[in-house]
Amino acid sequence: MQGAPRIAWEKTPLGVRYKLIKDLPNGNRLVRHAECIAPNAFIIPNIREPGTVAKRKERGTELSWAVPIDNEHVRGISIVAWPLEGGEPKGDWKAGTDTVQDIRPGSELRRTYEERQRKPDDLEAQEGQRAIAIHALENLATSDLGIVTLRRLLREQIRRIEDGLDPINTVRDLDANHRIPTNAWNTVLAPTEAASVAYSEDV
Q1: 202 Cα distance to chain centroid
Q2: Are 59 and 81 in contact (CB under 8 A)?
Q3: With CB atoms counted within 10 Å of each terminal CB, which end of the chain scores lower, N or C?
């Protein structure tokens, strides 16, 4: 993609999501929503979406959790909806959040220190915050609004628990224990539709 996308963050009934809007060189417009489902689950739609074919609300194929092990470690767990081809799992398919590709190394652990310094990725950004991040040393900017929004939401849920209330996404009613609609997807608008849809519209 060329040029800077427009990014915003907003609360959802399940947590917090970001909205990325990008006008592509081919005239299409990409609108991506990724959602953090409080307290520790997240859905990210296909990060390799080329934006060549118009589509509406193509949902992510993975639901992931970051599960704390101790104060310095987490374990990532994902459930993936792997497509079938001829009744068998499609062999050349890659999960939509698989970051190991030609243009980026993802979380490749076998890279040398020099490679990691010259071409950092998510792993370097995460490890660069220390094993336990010291928030007092942060210099948050407008681009960190999503982090601030999520932290506020989590603090609100802690206060609810202290007040004897259930936090967000707690389901005790058996009748309400069913599939929950999420708020993460990719949309690609063709040029004519992009011209008629406001940037603020939820597509």
Answers
A1: 17
A2: no
A3: N
